[in-house]
């Protein structure tokens, strides 16, 4: 029985430390969820699926891509698409029609 009491005591102190342990991942997500203005403006869709506005060979692209982590750094993966500003605007203009189709199928 005394062992259970120690576990309960330690669990009460653990519960005080529990939220502290849970905060860093939430802070990481919060940092990723905010738009950043450093090198490339970035928005998080979900998890490691990001939208970035980038410049490549003097041209601007909207890059919707899944990233992976290597050595603590997020790197772009193969899964994704880069759209020109014209293609991005076209996609946005199709939004209502796409949403109606999703609703009718769902």
UniProtKB/TrEMBL annotation:
Gene Ontology, cellular component aspect: nucleus
Ranges of biased composition (kind: Basic and acidic residues): 24-41
Protein name: RNA polymerase II transcriptional coactivator
An example Gene Ontology molecular-function term: DNA binding
Location relative to the cell: Nucleus
Major site of localization recorded for this protein: nucleus
Keyword set includes Glycoprotein: no
């Amino acid at each position: 029985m005394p062992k259970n009491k120690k576990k309960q005591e330690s669990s009460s102190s653990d519960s005080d430390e529990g939220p502290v342990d849970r905060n860093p991942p939430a802070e990481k997500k919060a940092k990723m969820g905010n738009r950043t203005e450093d090198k490339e403006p970035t928005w998080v869709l979900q998890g490691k699926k990001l939208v970035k506005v980038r410049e490549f060979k003097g041209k601007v692209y909207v890059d919707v891509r899944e990233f992976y982590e290597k050595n603590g750094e997020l790197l772009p993966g193969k899964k994704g698409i880069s759209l020109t500003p014209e293609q991005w605007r076209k996609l946005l203009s199709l939004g209502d029609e796409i949403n109606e189709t999703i609703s009718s199928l769902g």
